[in-house]
Specification:
six-stranded antiparallel sheet; 59 helices
């Protein structure tokens, strides 16, 4: 039986459990489980990280651990009873593990590896903690390392900042919000601003002297030098180098390294250097012979320097190679480093270009204790410490130092009978009074052991040597007395013997007769002659002599020789010895009582360092004199005591305060001193107001803290000695003292006076005075003193008065003192503190300090409350709660209003620019916010009621609520706290929701019914919605562990607020109408939050709104409009999801017991309109969701484009929202522009252009457009569209737009812009003729399955491929866009199971465009450059063919049963357009009989042959290979049975008898076969002319095969009609209009020729998609199409069958390049040999049939074949009801688009995009049009013709009489009253624009493009030759002109 567990609640899995038993729970080792029940060795429970899955598992797999149970029962929570750091590590590492893997997926390798190392480190440290064998210090150290790494990882991964206290996480419920904020801020500040260390240290390691070839040993002396003061600031460090230039003791690395310690921040500057002096040890002169002398001398070698500033930017140890310089003159050696620093290059020179001193240097920051911890390895090797010369900036009391530094400065010596100067060496000894030489007391520098003798280096031949050689004397303190230093001077001979002969000496005693040490200064010593060292055997002989000129005998006679002198500088750095005699006299006051007054007077002049050395002795002396002679010396002793106390306030000596505190507590013995101290202190205070000079008084008050410490300690000593006598006297004296204090504090001065400064000085020490008084007085008595003292201060003062800031500092220290933490004292001082705070905050002064004070006050109250709640005495806890509640109420009453105003003012102020000021601003804001939250958190229900009831009027309450709601809105701003302060944000949200629940009742009670106030209610609802939407509450985005913690601690606060919103809304009743439609957007925003319960609660509010609006106005149009507008903006921001759409629309509720919105509506009387609204909104949501999903994709592709296109059409057609429609036009434009789809971008912008008219109506600023007129904006749009069409190489469309703009400029006489526009138009014609354009491929793609977006689901589209994109590339691109899609391997229609499947299926194959109504394609002489545009632009229909056999397949001749299934796809819009793909609107299926198929195959092949022959004749090919291949393919197929199979199949008697209806088709097939034979014969003739020599055998073979083919067809040469014996007309000029004399050939152009019949399938003219204006006028203006004719090669350009075009196919249509280049150079693959020789070649689909890779095109303008009969099937008809006024020169169809040209020899890549997408209003490149023409009125012009006509006599070789063209009629200029009408002969558009339905007014074409009207004949008679004169005199054909440019 399963029993709930009592103790076994928490455990860790020891081994993996597969969970194969029934209800088994799979476990992995290391999982933590919570146990619910147990039964016979089994547990039931769940894994903590997945609490939703419960199951059973064996108990033996679990290691139980102690845990604390919270909320026992169904919703109990288990908290492990282990170290909080361990728990945090476990949870954090689990979260990191998931994110760590994601780093690998995102390829963030650096962070991935760093995090891996940190995780391993944490695991190792965790093991050490779990072992539990560490000391307390070690455990703290390890926890510190763990938390530091946890914080680092959280920061790197963007996780939350964890508040800690002593390495443990803090529970926000157990501390106040102010404390929580301080913890968060402190950790955040530590992260942002790392603390600046005050102490710095320099680590130096000497590695050697590089490239040193001296062969002598070296000594390197390093020291730090201050060039500004020209003095060293450190002692010297010595490194000895061997003859190879490397350290002598390489095995002892510590000998090479040192640490220069105690550098202050002021030392880290540019003019502080590390200096290295290098001394060589060897011969006197470098390089002299060995035979000269064997004695070794110390000689100068070189110097190197480096600035400290160069090391500041380097965090790690850095290697440096320093240049070494030598001194040009040895006499300047002492200042060589200074010369190098000051760059006096005449004094030094480089030792060698390859010589350098190699060193490693690193700056370390922090005190020595921290450095020893962080760099422990340095100190374990006993590294030498190089000390500072003198004490550091901060002197520590425990520091013991006793160093004397002597520097050998210079000497003046005589020659001594020598012809040259001496080589002087100085030997230094330290001797005692007995003459004994002291050992180990002389040191050349750190890193060297002490020696008994020091030798200076030698300067060559110098009687005035200057050494600046520093030596250190670390002499013990007790040995100083009687010691002296002797300096012996020797001449170093350079002779062979190398003698060092002594010639003199000097000496100096170290301690003077009065006990003081040798003073710090330069000493000039006398040089005593000495020629023998035996003179030194008796030191008493020379110690009686004077040692310096300052102590010579009274007769001032110099001893021995006054011409020679020796100078030294001494410097003492000792914590025990002194050089000051006055301090020694004071300490011996009992010996010389007559000197007491003089000594006390001199004490103030003694250096502070000397005083702190003997601090305790000095204090004993002062209090001894005070006790013995108080009347005589009391005031002087008091002043000296004040001086010493204030001396310790200096930062240099402040570390000695603990020394004085220790003295007071342990050594002070003045039991009677308090009386004199009180009396003297009062004496000074009483004279404050009347005194003229306040300096001494201020010094006294500055020392008040320690004066009171002495008073209190003296009184305690007296009480201890006497048993408490004199208590009343002491109390009275203190009260009298404070009366004097209150008197001078209450004194008010005008402006800033000395008294004000004195008051400020006292207030700084007052809180510590009160703390001292607590030791001898009762708590309440001291509190009264503090209350009276603070109360005596003036509340108001001058703005610049320093007293105000000091007063707040005093209050802050009082709040932090024990005086305030004591509850009894707090009740006394709280009112006076609040009074001062309130005044300062009202005046917005010293807000930083005010926030600090308020924070401290509330923290104390909260802390006491927490401690009380943990206590064991209920009664005491209740008493405290009452007292605390009273204190909170007092603070709330006094500070709530001013606190809210302060927060509002501070947050509305702009943040300061400086970092420090900005951080201070953030601190102030955060602290005030924390104070407010703490106050609100401390309020109970009764406190809220009491507080709200104190407002006397409704207006006051309303003002407070509005302020509070506004502050709450500020608090939940995302920028209120740093983004990683989630803990603080959650606490804030919890306080806000608690307050809202309390304030809701106040709102209902005071502002409802007749007291209704809209403003308060609106603010409430706005706050609630903003609260719901704040980021920190979106639990769905949190990791599971974090989400679980938040839900356990706070629940889902969004649902709580949502329920409160619903409750408050329902309570409004009839006032709901006031919030419609204002609150619709807010409530909609709240419902978009992905929380099911919240949505179910709030969505029914919309039902109420609709019902209320219907009852008020009879409809809910406002609700609908607001819903739609807000829904678009919100869902564009990423809000809402598919579930929300279903919940909004579904009849059955998805979650919970709440009815859905649609279900509530269906029960109403207004059901139809309500359901319609819901349906509309739901459809909008579908499109918005699709659009948002599309925008999430980084790359711009078809899926991206489809979303905005779908949404754009929805806004226009269904919602009729013009502004939203225009917005999405521009969004779509930006997408196209980013993808470099310039043609589509232009078409998109045309949608906005067509909404505008050429009027002066002013337009507002919108989407980046400035304030301008409608004319100006339309002009700007035109120019932008032209620019995009130009970049997309759609120049035909540019021409139409240019003409319309030109008409406008001409109408306003803006000839400057008109000229530019005409020049632009001319350049466009040049581009059409000269630049290369690509013909894109088209692909049909079907999207099947429910997993596709709404706008793609179960639909088929035709897509316009990219440049050079074949079928395989397109398939791969689609599969990459839809990686989860499955490719269908057939072209059959999908089954219903596929359509309904929860998957994605793609069906792709290539289709061929079917141009419609493009008569230009049927014209002879039109260049291919022009025709190519119309073949692939403005295409509505596409088709593909699938061959199949119907009936029984004839194995002998399969052509008999070979049928073709032709599918024609009609699009909803033409391509190109506003998208690269459009949906298929209609699908037509037609079967072609075998006869029709054969006819079409031969017809297409004939057309291909004609084209290649013409290109070869006109030398458009570099070689004849394409023609060779085509001829070979056709002739070879015919010989092997191709045409014979057709004859056998369709010319047989049986077939003719059985198919009498196919007579005309059979005749047509026969004609085409004969025509092919004739074309082949002519082609062979042309081929023979141009074929190369190596291809001659193949040509001969082709000729032979052709004769065989001709014989098989039964043709004889004489049977050829005249048509085929004429060659195509040869145009040697570049124009088809200028006819030259034809070249004679076998085919005469005058003979009849059979022309191609129309395709068996004819298609009516279709209308392209036109996005019309939203206005009624614009919507009625559409274009029409005239001239219905099929391209002569459209039948040839067919796609392969679906079976070979599916995703598995290896073939695709070729990319076609239409230009004048030969076919061999074009980017089209040639067919394989197998295809060329296959007899089944003709059975293939047109794209696979044997031909070149090019689209067959009409003849090039430079060469013309047999002219075809051009038949115009339709004549233009005038459009009824067409207005007379034309709005422009004409327009193009929207479908026109061409890809950018790419040379065939370059990589097919798009041109590079500009970095920024220009706005549609951006102007054209420089030299563009002048915008905003000033002229906008005047008569209108009829326009200017853009086509100039040339004389026929100049262009033709015909008779001029026959070439006279009719002269155009003059066109009258219309007046203002007449409408502007375009005449037939004026500016006709050469490029027609087509529409399917609406017809437009006909406009004549130029003669060059006119086609005589004729009816479509039933037969196809041979085309007669049309001579030039007949064509010139024929009437021009009328062509339609669209009215709107946007209908391109």
């Amino acid at each position: 039986m399963w029993v709930p567990t009592e103790q076994e609640k928490y455990g860790v899995v020891l081994a993996n459990f597969r969970g194969l038993v029934q209800y088994g729970l799979p476990l992995e080792i290391g999982d933590t489980v919570q146990i619910l029940e147990k039964c016979e060795g089994w547990y039931r429970g769940f894994i903590i990280k997945n609490p939703t899955t419960k199951g059973i598992f064996p108990s033996c797999y679990i290691h139980l651990k102690n845990a604390h149970i919270k909320n026992k029962g169904q919703f109990e929570t288990v908290i492990p009873m282990e170290d909080s750091v361990i728990t945090e590590m476990t949870v954090t590492l689990r979260d990191w593990g998931i994110m760590w893997k994601q780093l690998y997926v995102r390829n963030e390798g650096d962070l991935f590896h760093r995090l891996w190392h940190v995780m391993n480190e944490i695991l190792e440290l965790r093991q050490q903690v779990l072992v539990g064998h560490l000391t307390h210090d070690s455990m703290s150290n390890i926890k510190q390392h763990i938390t530091a790494r946890l914080d680092w990882g959280n920061e790197q991964l963007g996780l939350d900042l964890v508040p800690r206290r002593e390495f443990s996480m803090v529970d926000p419920d157990e501390i106040s919000v102010t404390e929580l904020y301080q913890l968060m801020e402190r950790r955040h500040r530590r992260k942002e601003l790392p603390g600046q260390a005050s102490m710095h240290h320099l680590f130096v390691q000497v590695k050697g002297l590089m490239s040193a070839s001296l062969g002598e040993e070296l000594e390197v002396f390093l020291f730090i030098y201050d060039s500004r003061d020209s003095r060293p600031i450190s002692e010297r460090f010595v490194v000895r180098l061997n003859k190879q230039g490397v350290p002598s003791a390489l095995e002892k690395a510590e000998r090479q390294c040192t640490l220069f310690v105690d550098l202050g921040s002021s030392d880290l500057r540019k003019d502080v250097y590390v200096v290295a002096h290098i001394i060589r040890i060897g011969r006197m002169v470098a390089g002299e012979k060995k035979s000269v002398s064997n004695v070794q001398y110390r000689r100068p070698f070189g110097c190197a320097i480096i600035s400290i500033a160069d090391l500041l930017t380097v965090d790690s140890k850095d290697d440096h190679l320093l240049k070494v310089y030598s001194c040009n003159m040895e006499t300047e050696w002492y200042q060589i480093h200074d010369s190098i620093i000051r760059k006096v290059s005449s004094r030094y020179s480089l030792v060698g270009s390859n010589t350098g001193l190699s060193m490693s240097l690193q700056l370390l920051h922090g005190d020595m204790e921290q450095i020893r911890k962080d760099y422990m390895r340095l100190f374990t090797r006993n590294i030498s410490i190089t000390k500072r010369l003198g004490f550091s900036d901060i002197i520590m009391p425990g520091e013991i130092r006793n160093d004397l530094y002597i520097t050998l400065e210079k000497g003046e010596f005589e020659k001594g009978g020598k012809s040259v100067a001496r080589n002087v060496e100085v030997s230094v000894h330290v001797l005692g009074a007995d003459g004994q030489i002291q050992k180990d007391v002389l040191c050349a520098g750190s890193g060297e052991l002490g020696v008994e003798q020091h030798h200076s280096f030698v300067l060559y031949h110098s009687n005035s040597p200057r050494w600046s050689d520093q030596i250190k004397l670390p002499i013990p303190m007790d040995l100083f007395r009687g010691l002296h230093v002797r300096f012996e001077f020797r001449h170093c001979s350079t002779k062979e013997k190398g003698e060092k002969k002594i010639f003199g000496f000097s000496f100096v005693p170290l301690m003077q007769e009065n006990g003081s040490i040798l003073p710090d200064r330069t000493h000039e010593l006398l040089v005593h002659k000495c020629e023998d060292a035996t003179y030194f055997q008796d030191v008493a002989r020379y110690l009686k002599l004077p040692y310096s000129k300052t102590n010579t005998p009274g007769n001032n006679q110099p001893a021995r020789n006054s011409k020679e002198s020796f100078w030294i500088t001494s410097f003492l750095c000792s914590t025990k010895l002194t050089q000051n005699g006055d301090i020694l006299d004071l300490l011996k006051w009992r010996t010389h009582p007559e000197k007491i007054a003089d000594c006390l007077s001199k004490l103030k002049d003694i250096d502070g360092t000397e005083i702190v050395k003997f601090l305790q002795d000095t204090l004993d002396t002062l209090f001894g004199i005070l006790d013995q002679s108080a009347q005589r010396y009391g005031l002087k002793v008091f002043d000296c005591l004040v001086h010493i106390i204030n001396l310790l306030q200096d930062s240099k000596f402040q570390q000695f305060k603990p020394v004085m505190d220790t003295y007071i507590e342990s050594h002070f013995a003045g039991a009677l001193s308090y009386r004199e101290l009180i009396k003297l202190l009062k004496w000074y205070i009483d004279r404050i107001i009347d005194a003229e000079h306040h300096e001494q008084i201020q010094q006294v008050l500055k020392a008040a803290e320690y004066i009171f410490k002495y008073i209190v300690q003296s009184r305690r000593l007296y009480v201890g000695a006497t048993g408490g006598q004199g208590e009343e006297e002491f109390r009275c004296s203190v009260h009298e003292l404070f009366k004097s204090v209150h008197l001078f504090l209450s004194h008010q001065s005008k402006g800033v006076s000395p008294i004000t400064h004195t008051q400020a000085v006292f207030l700084r020490s007052f809180p510590t005075v009160c703390c001292e008084l607590l030791k001898v007085f009762l708590v309440r008595e001291v509190a009264v003193l503090a209350h009276d003292t603070l109360g005596s201060l003036p509340v108001m003062a001058h703005t610049d008065c320093p007293l105000q800031a000091v007063k707040l500092q005093c209050i802050a220290k009082t709040v932090e003192s024990p005086l305030y933490t004591n509850q009894e004292c707090r009740c006394v001082v709280l009112p006076v503190i609040l009074r001062h705070l309130q005044v300062h905050m009202q005046e917005q002064r010293d807000l930083v300090m005010c926030a600090h004070i308020l924070t401290g006050m509330l923290s104390v109250i909260t802390k006491d409350g927490t401690v009380s709640q943990r206590g064991q005495v209920p009664h005491a806890s209740h008493v405290f709660e009452c007292v605390a509640s009273e204190e909170v109420n007092i603070i709330m009453d006094s500070m709530s209003g001013v606190l809210l105003r302060t927060i509002l003012e501070v947050t509305n102020c702009p943040q300061p620019a400086g970092t420090a000021l900005r951080l201070q601003y953030q601190d102030v804001t955060g602290e005030f916010v924390a104070c407010l939250l703490t106050l609100l958190r401390l309020l109970s229900d009764k406190d809220y009621q009491r507080f709200l009831s104190r407002f006397s009027s409704k207006d006051e309450l309303m003002a407070f609520l509005l302020q509070l709601f506004t502050v709450f809105e500020i608090l939940i701003r995302p920028d209120m706290f740093p983004k990683d302060w989630t803990v603080m944000q959650l606490v804030t949200s919890n306080v806000i929701i608690t307050s809202l629940l309390y304030l809701s009742d106040a709102l209902k009670k005071n502002f409802l019914n007749e007291k209704f106030d809209f403003k308060v209610w609106e603010s409430y609802f706005y706050l609630a919605v903003v609260f719901i939407n704040q980021q920190c509450l979106q639990l769905e985005k949190f990791p599971p562990s974090k989400r679980k913690k938040v839900l356990e601690k706070y629940g889902d606060m969004r649902v709580m607020v949502g329920c409160e919103i619903l409750s408050m809304w329902q309570s409004l009743e009839e006032h709901k109408l006031n919030f419609i439609p204002v609150m619709i957007g807010l409530f909609l925003e709240a419902t978009l939050v992905p929380q099911a319960d919240l949505r179910n609660v709030l969505i029914p509010i919309f039902h109420d709104m609709m019902d209320c609006e219907l009852s008020r106005s009879g409809n809910f149009k406002q609700v609908e409009a607001k819903l739609i507008d807000k829904l678009d903006s919100l869902m564009s921001e990423g809000k809402g999801d598919e579930t929300y759409k279903e919940l909004f629309n579904n009849i059955i509720p998805l979650f919970g017991p709440y009815p859905s919105l649609l279900k509530k509506i269906e029960s109403e009387t207004w059901r139809e309109s309500g359901v319609s609204l819901i349906t509309t909104v739901t459809r909008l949501m579908e499109r918005l969701l699709d659009y948002r999903d599309c925008m999430k994709i980084g790359d711009v592709d078809g899926k991206n484009i489809g979303g905005p296109v779908n949404l754009l059409n929805f806004y226009k057609t269904e919602l009729n929202k013009e502004e939203m429609y225009i917005r999405y036009i521009h969004k779509l434009y930006d997408l196209h522009f980013k993808a470099q789809n310039y043609t589509e971008a232009a078409y998109t912008l045309l949608l906005y252009d067509e909404l505008l008219e050429w009027t002066e109506r002013p337009l507002r600023e919108f989407l980046g457009y400035p304030l301008q007129s409608e004319w100006q904006r339309k002009e700007c749009l035109h120019l932008t569209i032209i620019h995009n069409f130009d970049r997309g190489k759609c120049w035909e469309n540019c021409i139409i737009l240019c003409r319309e703009l030109a008409n406008q400029y001409e109408a306003y006489y803006d000839y400057r812009n008109l000229s530019k526009m005409r020049m632009m138009e001319a350049s466009l014609y040049d581009k059409i003729m000269n630049q290369q354009r690509l013909e894109p491929e088209f692909f049909r793609i079907g999207f099947y399955g429910k997993k596709f977006p709404f706008f793609l689901r179960n639909k088929e589209f035709v897509c316009r491929g990219n440049d050079y994109e074949r079928l395989e590339a397109f398939q791969q691109r689609m599969l990459s866009e839809f990686p989860h899609a499955i490719a269908m391997q057939h072209a059959n229609p999908p089954e219903q199971t596929i359509l309904q499947a929860e998957a994605q299926y793609l069906q792709i194959y290539a289709v061929s465009p079917v141009p419609e109504g493009q008569d230009v394609l049927q014209r002879d002489g039109v260049p291919n450059n022009i025709k190519s545009f119309y073949k692939v632009n403005h295409i509505w229909k596409f088709r593909y063919d699938r061959p199949f056999h119907k009936g029984t397949k004839d194995k002998e001749n399969e052509f008999k049963s070979l049928w073709v299934e032709r599918t024609t796809l009609t699009l909803a819009q033409s391509l190109p357009g506003i998208s690269r793909w459009f949906e298929v609107d209609k699908r037509d299926l037609v079967e072609m009989s075998p006869l029709e198929n054969a006819t079409e195959v031969i017809e297409n092949k004939n057309l291909q042959l004609r084209t290649l022959i013409a290109q070869c004749q006109t030398r458009q090919m570099q070689n004849s290979n394409p023609l060779t291949m085509c001829l070979n393919g056709v002739i070879d197929a015919a010989v092997n049975g191709g045409l014979a199979r057709y004859q056998e199949a369709f010319f047989a008697k049986d077939y003719i008898a059985n198919h009498p209806q196919d007579g005309d088709k059979i005749t047509r097939l026969r004609e085409l076969m004969f025509e092919q034979a004739h074309i082949l014969e002519y082609g062979l003739a042309v081929h023979e002319k141009y074929v190369s020599l190596d291809m001659r055998p193949l040509h001969k073979k082709l000729v032979d095969q052709f004769h065989m083919m001709r014989s098989s067809l039964g043709l004889q040469p004489q049977e050829f009609p005249a048509l085929v014996r004429a060659s195509p007309m040869h145009f040697v000029s570049g124009s088809p209009r200028s006819c030259r004399t034809p070249v004679p050939s076998a085919i005469s152009p005058d003979g009849p020729r059979m022309v191609m019949r129309r395709s068996p399938l004819t298609y009516p003219a279709v209308n392209r998609y036109s996005s019309s204006s939203l206005s009624s006028q614009a919507s009625n203006e559409v274009s029409n199409i005239t001239g219905q004719s099929e391209s002569s090669d459209e039948v040839f350009n067919m796609q392969p069958s679906p079976s070979t075009s599916s995703l598995s196919s290896n073939q695709s249509g070729s990319t076609h390049v239409n230009n004048s280049a030969p076919a061999s150079n074009r980017a089209s693959p040639l067919p394989s040999d197998k295809q060329k020789h296959s007899r089944d070649n003709l059975c293939l689909s047109p794209r696979d049939r044997l031909c070149t890779g090019l689209f067959p095109s009409t003849l090039d303008p430079t060469a013309r074949t047999v002219p075809l009969q051009i038949v115009d099937p339709t004549s233009s008809r005038p459009e009824p009801n067409l207005p007379t006024l034309e709005k422009g020169a004409g327009s193009l169809g929207i479908g026109m688009r061409s890809y950018s040209p790419m040379p065939t020899n370059k990589s097919p890549q798009k041109t590079s995009m500009p970095p920024l997408t220009p706005s549609p209003i951006d102007c054209l490149p420089p030299g563009g049009l002048v915008l905003n023409s000033p002229a906008r009125s005047g008569s209108c012009s009829s326009g200017i013709s853009s086509l100039s006509r040339c004389s026929v006599s100049e262009t033709c070789g015909m008779d001029p009489a026959l070439s006279d063209s009719p002269v155009p009629l003059p066109v009258p200029v219309p007046t203002l009253e007449e409408p502007m009408v375009r005449r037939g002969s004026k500016t006709p558009p050469p490029y027609s624009v087509y529409e399917r339905n609406n017809l437009r007014r006909a406009t004549p074409l130029p003669h060059s493009l006119s086609v005589p009207p004729s009816a479509d004949p039933s037969g196809l008679p041979p085309k007669p030759h049309l001579n030039r004169s007949h064509r010139l005199h024929s009437e021009p054909r009328q062509r339609t002109v669209p009215r709107k440019v946007s209908q391109l």
